[in-house]
Model the fold of this input.
Amino acid sequence: MAKKIVGYIKLQIPAGKANPSPPVGPALGQRGLNIMQFCKEFNAATQGLEPGMPIPVVITAFGDRTFTFITKTPPNTYFLLKAAKVSKGSPTVGKGAAVGRVTTSQLREIALEKMKDMNASDIDGAIRMLAGSAKSMGLTVVEG
Done:
């Protein structure tokens, strides 16, 4: 018989840096899950990634207080800021100068890496989505 799912918990945790402090502890504690076990498993699963990279994770909590989790690729904004070599997007989009630029080849690389987590039907659709995200962050998309 399949286990009864009591809920899903969605968090964004830096790779290899899960610990019992908020947001992890309270989110898992209220479902009665083993916080230290999750931290150990998450850190082991993300140890090969760049330390501190934000990793979205979906935790499935079961009625018998066990859990499973799935890690996803980091958010588009993380990749766009890294490609443009800037620390944050523009505070006022559409007004003033752009904070950085990304090339279409950089967008293609990001799209290839993110494709499994994006709801685009093809790579060109994914690139258009990323270009829209870049524009809304105050980044200029240039050919190249």
Q: What stands out?
A: The CA atoms of residues 102 and 141 lie 5 Å apart. Helices lie at 24-29, 35-45, 76-84, 104-114, 123-136.
